[in-house]
Amino acid sequence: MDNMSNPSRSSLPVELLHEILQLLDGATLKTCAQVSKTWLDISRTHLFRKLVHDVHLEEDGMVSQADGTPVILQDLLEYLEDTPAVRGYIQQLALRVPRQTPLVTWGANHERQLQLCRFETLINILARLPSLSSLVVDGIPFHTPESPADVRPVVDSPVVPSIKKLTLRSWWRNGSTSHADILLHLLSLFGEVQHLDLGAIHHLPRPASALLAVQIITRIRALTFGDVDALNAVHQLPNLWQLSSLAMPNIAPKEAAIAATLTHAARDSLRHLEIKLHEAIVPLLPGPHDLSYLDTLELASCTKLESLSVTVCMYKIASPPRPQLVGPSTQASFYEPAYAYLTRLLAALPPTLSTLTFNVNHNISADFTFSRDRSPAAAPMQTDWTTLDRVLTDRLANKGLQSIEFKGLEGGRLRVVERKHIIEALPKTWRSGKVRFS
């Protein structure tokens, strides 16, 4: 019998078998696991690589505390304790409370009981996953037994030495601990987080405890914000000077000082930066007509910055007057304060900058309803891009800039008409041959 008819004696390299089996669905992988010990190990690698645990807050399968309140994630911990053979294969773990899931149950005496996750349970889960590289915590309500005056982290030393990506999303809390403090307690479980994604964190109105923040020794290499609320939680961390990548949220004047603590701390290590200007240029809720408050971030002092990604909107002016996206029979338009700030920033950035990306927000509806006082005068537009064209060509020729990319948000492609208007607005930059669209 040759190797093709007896897969258990296949001469295919193990690396190639991994490449093949990772393309199979779960049912097929279960069949492959019965072929041989080698195939069992490879199949388990792909069967258990990612574990998604949805928390359904029913009584069934939940282990109760002494007071009868169910303990969230206790069932997952018991599963891991009962299946030691699969724990080492789990690399990605997602802990989620599905949307619209009720978090409050009613006790025997009709009292409200908020179902909570104890940090001890999460700690025990993480301790049983030696290969964990990615963790998502989404909507889990945490219980912290400490009083507000007790500002010690929930662990004395990290449970996980290093993790590639940690994604934290919204959660409930108990009454005595702020959302921001819970975020810091979660961070204390890790020695190093290569990418901390706070893109979906919202409603952190109170800043984290400064006394707690200075005790969090977690090293963060890349940090992503989706909302300014999360700035309240992490801007006081002591190890921000090690950041190499930072994706900032939209920043209003009142958050500029907090955001500046991040950029100032990371100015000597930051290599990649993402900033967003599109929220300030939607005249439905007019942003400030002067974005000079962003100068407090002192981005030009980031001496090692290699790449910059900027989210902007580009409009046309239609009749009746209303901002619209770049379209036929009109010039491309920037919100003038954003144009002024961006042009000034690009002129000042260090010569280490080699890559520039414009994320063009072309998904804003052209059907916004504006009152008469929200005319182009109330939302000044910049149609002459001569200064930006000059700054970009100077950087391309003399300051080390190697490439400029224009792309739609979230990987979307720019339309032909949008590309046409950008080329017409930046003729010298386009002729450099270093501009591309995606």
What is the fold's blueprint, element by element?
Blueprint lengths: L13 H8 L4 H7 L4 H11 L2 E5 L8 E2 L5 E2 L2 H9 L1 H4 L4 E5 L7 E3 L5 E3 L2 E2 H9 L6 E5 L3 E2 L16 E10 L9 H9 L2 E11 L9 H4 L5 E7 L5 H4 L10 E3 L8 H10 L6 E5 L30 E7 L1 E3 L5 E3 L8 E2 H13 L6 E7 L19 E2 L3 H13 L4 E6 L7 H10 L1 H5 L3 E3 L1
Helix pairs in contact: 1-3, 2-3, 4-6, 11-12
Task: Please explain how this structure is put together.
With 438 residues, the protein is of the alpha/beta class. Among the domains are: 1-47; 277-438, no CATH class. It is 26% helix and 22% strand. The protein has helices at residues 14-21, 26-32, 37-47, 74-82, 84-87, 119-127, 179-187, 210-213, 231-234, 256-265, 336-348, 386-398, 416-425, 427-431, and strands spanning 50-54, 63-64, 70-71, 92-96, 104-106, 112-114, 117-118, 134-138, 142-143, 160-169, 190-200, 219-225, 245-247, 272-276, 307-313, 315-317, 323-325, 334-335, 355-361, 381-382, 403-408, 435-437. The chain is globular, with a radius of gyration of 26 Å. The relative contact order is 0.06. Residues 6-51 form the F-box domain.
